[in-house]
């Protein structure tokens, strides 16, 4: 599983990453971008166009499909539940976390419980520290977390939080993170 969290400046960084993810990456990609409803629908369309993959807002109860990009809809936390090969999306309107809904932390926590060490969490540019607590859960179950560097971030808040917590395997530009993502995907295929 590949999971990405972003906020301020995130759409541009997301597009830069997904347009270069090769078609042989079969893992589902789940994304939480801090963004209001309506705008997430438009962003999902842009992600699909940029990547040449199916991309949509996640729908409650929807099973995850290989290679599909799922974006948390505005005003809903998106989590994943299930064991074994069947994983489904769950949407909720629980209270905001880190002043955000959707928030990255609930998504990351749920993925840590479902995927264990077979998850890569990616934190891109954004304000605040959303994603740090969930990233810590990913690392505790043997998963991997990487983050965007300060120089290429519009706001180095979310990536700084995970970098300064000492839980990142890599802190670099989106281009360099892409290489890490592709290597992770190949290593964990099947």
Give a quick summary of the entry:
The protein is α/β, with parallel strands linked by helices and 190 residues long. It is built from six helices and nine strands; from the N terminus they run βαβαββββαβαβαβα. Helix 1 (10-18) runs parallel beside helix 2, helix 3 (104-115) packs parallel to helix 4 (132-140) and helix 4 crosses helix 5.
Name the helicity range.
Answer: 25-40%
Report strand %: 15-25%
Mean pLDDT equals 95
Report on the biggest sheet.
Answer: 7 strands, parallel
Q: Give the helix/strand class.
A: alpha/beta
Order of helices and strands: EHEHEEEEHEHEHEH
Distance between the termini: 11 Å
Which consecutive residue ranges, at least 5 long each, have pLDDT under 50? none
Main sheet: which strands, in order across? 3-4-2-1-7-8-9
Write the layout of secondary structure elements.
Layout: E1 2-6, H1 10-18, E2 29-33, H2 39-51, E3 55-57, E4 69-71, E5 77-81, E6 88-92, H3 104-115, E7 120-123, H4 132-140, E8 144-148, H5 158-164, E9 170-172, H6 174-187
Parallel strand pairs: 1-2, 1-7, 2-4, 3-4, 7-8, 8-9
Antiparallel strand pairs: 5-6
Helix pairs in contact: 1-2, 3-4, 4-5
Detailed description of the structure:
Strand 5 and strand 6 (88-92) form a beta hairpin. The protein has six helices and nine strands. Strands 3-4-2-1-7-8-9 form a seven-stranded parallel beta sheet, with helices on both faces. Strands 5-6 form a two-stranded antiparallel ribbon. The protein is globular, with a radius of gyration of 14 Å. The mean pLDDT is 95. The longest helix is centred in the last third of the chain and has 14 residues, at 174-187. The protein is α/β, with parallel strands linked by helices. It has helices at 10-18, 39-51, 104-115, 132-140, 158-164, 174-187; strands at 2-6, 29-33, 55-57, 69-71, 77-81, 88-92, 120-123, 144-148, 170-172.
């Amino acid at each position: 599983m590949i999971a990405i969290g972003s906020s301020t400046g995130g759409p541009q960084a997301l597009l830069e990453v997904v347009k270069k993810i090769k078609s042989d990456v079969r893992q589902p990609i789940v994304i939480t971008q801090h963004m209001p409803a309506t705008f997430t629908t438009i962003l999902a369309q842009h992600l699909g166009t940029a990547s040449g993959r199916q991309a949509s807002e996640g729908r409650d109860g929807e099973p995850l499909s290989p290679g599909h990009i799922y974006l948390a809809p505005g005003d809903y936390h998106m989590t994943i539940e299930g064991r074994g090969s069947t994983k489904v999306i769950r949407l909720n309107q629980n209270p905001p976390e880190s002043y955000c809904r959707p928030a990255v932390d609930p998504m990351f926590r749920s993925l840590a419980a479902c995927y264990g060490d077979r998850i890569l969490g990616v934190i891109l540019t954004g304000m605040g520290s959303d994603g740090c607590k969930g990233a810590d859960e990913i690392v505790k179950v043997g998963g991997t977390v990487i983050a965007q560097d300060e120089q290429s971030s519009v706001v180095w808040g979310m990536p700084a939080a995970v970098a300064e917590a000492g839980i990142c395997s890599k802190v670099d530009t989106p281009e360099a993170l892409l290489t890490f993502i592709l290597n992770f995907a190949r290593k964990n295929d099947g």
